[in-house]
């Protein structure tokens, strides 16, 4: 019996010694494991930036608690924003810079092997719906080739404090967080991937501006509360307001775009509008309307700009954009842009610009709208203007024949009276 007790005591003592030894050795073993891949490449198979044919960026809006995806692809010999109705992507250097920043990217230093630390380093996956945290989410970036194969994908986290050029990163699905040296910081904002200068106008280009404010009286089929302000450079009416509008035109930035129906786009290129149901409904949903005479109207008025070369830009201001945008963007507004020319020598230029604008309803910020149309912006406290119901004017919904677009600036006429009832 004593021998059995002695054996039991020896086993217990051995177990205690093993536990103590493990607790002493484990920290070193853990440290050895976390640093096991230091210096290795994050994407060893990614060698050629020219193989990148798509980039996907997902950012996270903490205020809105929503992921914001953006995807750019090379299709039919051009780069387009497939996440935004194939709008042309014109900031190609941004994609090239991102791809170059991820080639040969190395795991400089591992900082944590704990899932619980991801929020501290800002590397929570923005697409992780299971994680309840609204903070600490990073930016997910993926580069793919023409067949859709992923060349590189990671989650960019916070930059390191007091260490320029270093930031935390994590590979999706893995718990280890690294600090790496990289300047990769691709944007998920539409405006950062497109032509920044929408109109390509400068203050010195502008000779005359006409600001038309009006409301639409659907009962009478005519415009009401019309206010017209004409501003001519170097004249007395070229005041502080005129200068502010002119400078705003030179710095106007596109905040988004929605495709027009192909039929409407083609009609705009040809200078003819056929008042079909699809065209009328597409326009009306965004605050634009056509009279039976082919005159385009907008529920927030319009601004016509004439350049020293005789090129006329007309900006018609429509509804506030409301299709799934964030609260920060709820003042974004549709603008319908057309271009014409008074000078035959510049007709080709005007035609090229008209073709560019024909395909899209552009979106501008509320701040830019307030600068371009101060009269309408100042009238926000007034009673709302009557809007066009589906039947205004009654003949609009029935008329199917083409109507020639009148010259810019021609005042719309009241709708003709309905035929007498028999």
Describe the protein's architecture and organization.
The protein has helices spanning 2-34, 92-102, 118-121, 240-250, 262-270, 277-285, 347-358, 366-372, 374-378, 394-398; strands at residues 54-61, 66-75, 78-81, 87-88, 109-112, 139-144, 150-159, 166-170, 177-181, 206-217, 222-232, 256-259, 272-274, 288-290, 296-298, 302-307, 311-320, 333-341, 360-364, 402-404. It is α+β, with helices and mostly antiparallel strands and 422 residues long. The protein has two domains: 49-192; 203-404. The strands form four sheets. It has a nine-stranded antiparallel sheet with strand order 4-3-2-1-6-7-8-9-5, with helices on one face. Strands 11-10-16-17-18-19-12 form a seven-stranded antiparallel sheet. A hairpin with a 5-residue loop joins strand 14 (288-290) and strand 15. The radius of gyration is 31 Å and the shape is elongated. The N and C termini lie far apart (122 Å).
Helix content: 25-40%
Estimate what percentage of residues fall within beta strands.
Answer: 25-35%
Main beta sheet, described? 9 strands, antiparallel
Q: Within the largest sheet, what's the order of strands?
A: 4-3-2-1-6-7-8-9-5
Q: How many angstroms separate the termini?
A: 122 Å
Unreliable stretches: 16-25, 380-422
Cα Rg: 31 Å
Helix run count: 10
Inertia-based shape: elongated
Number of E strands: 20
Order of helices and strands: HEEEEHEHEEEEEEHEHEHEEEEEHEHHHE
If you average the pLDDT, what whole number results?
A: 81
How many domains is the backbone divided into?
2
* Computed structural class: alpha+beta
């Amino acid at each position: 019996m004593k021998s059995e007790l002695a054996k039991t005591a020896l086993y217990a003592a051995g177990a205690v010694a093993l536990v103590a030894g493990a607790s002493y050795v484990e920290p070193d073993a853990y440290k050895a494991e976390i640093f096991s891949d230091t210096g290795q490449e994050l994407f060893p198979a990614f060698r050629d930036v020219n193989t990148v044919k798509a980039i996907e960026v997902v950012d996270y809006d903490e205020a809105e608690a929503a992921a914001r995806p953006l995807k750019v692809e090379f299709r039919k010999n051009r780069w387009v924003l497939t996440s935004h109705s194939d709008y042309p992507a014109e900031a190609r250097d941004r994609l090239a810079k991102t791809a170059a920043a991820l080639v040969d990217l190395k795991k400089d230093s591992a900082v944590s092997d704990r899932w619980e630390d991801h929020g501290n380093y800002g590397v929570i996956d923005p697409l992780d719906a299971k994680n309840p945290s609204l903070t600490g989410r990073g930016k997910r970036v993926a580069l793919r080739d023409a067949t859709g194969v992923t060349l590189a994908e990671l989650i960019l986290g916070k930059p390191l404090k007091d260490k320029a050029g270093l930031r935390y990163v994590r590979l999706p699905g893995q718990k280890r967080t690294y600090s790496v040296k990289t300047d990769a910081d691709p944007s998920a904002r539409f405006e950062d991937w497109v032509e920044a200068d929408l109109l390509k106008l400068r203050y010195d280009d502008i000779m005359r501006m006409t600001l038309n404010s009006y409301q639409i009286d659907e009962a009478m089929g005519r415009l009401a509360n019309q206010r017209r302000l004409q501003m001519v450079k170097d004249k007395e009416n070229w005041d502080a307001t005129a200068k502010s509008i002119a400078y705003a035109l030179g710095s106007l930035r596109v905040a988004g775009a929605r495709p027009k129906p192909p039929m409407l786009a083609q009609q705009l290129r040809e200078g003819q509008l056929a008042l079909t149901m699809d065209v009328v409904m597409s326009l009306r949903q965004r605050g634009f309307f056509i009279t039976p005479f082919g005159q385009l109207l907008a529920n927030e008025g319009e601004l016509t700009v004439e350049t020293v070369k005789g090129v006329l830009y007309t900006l018609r201001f429509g509804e506030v954009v409301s299709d799934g945008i964030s609260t920060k963007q709820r003042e974004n507004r549709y603008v319908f842009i057309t271009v014409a020319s008074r000078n035959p020598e510049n007709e080709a230029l005007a035609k090229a610009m008209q073709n560019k604008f024909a395909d899209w309803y552009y979106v501008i910020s509320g701040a830019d709208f307030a600068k371009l149309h101060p009269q309408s912006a100042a009238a926000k406290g007034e009673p709302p203007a009557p809007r066009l119901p589906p039947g205004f004017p009654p003949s609009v919904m029935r008329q199917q024949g083409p109507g020639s677009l009148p010259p810019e600036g021609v005042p719309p006429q009241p709708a003709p009276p309905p035929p007498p009832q028999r």
